[in-house]
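Deliverable D4.2, example record:
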Amino acid sequence: MGTIEEAVRGFLWQFISDQEVEGDHDLFGSGMVNSLFAMQLVLFVEKQYGITVANEDLDYENFKSVNAIVAFIQSKQ
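Output generated by the structure prediction step:
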């Protein structure tokens, strides 16, 4: 079984071509992904890790980078 980061990167690679994205790179601010990706990301996180993403969790800071997504998932486990 892979790490959380590997799973997040695997999901991300379905939507972007640059597979060497730094962990703290701002995915949304750089225009690499859009709001449709955000919805799909939330569904991925909920299904993959069996957690519920509540309205208060829908904060840009929780999903803006690979590192932020990993930290969010870890905080919910």
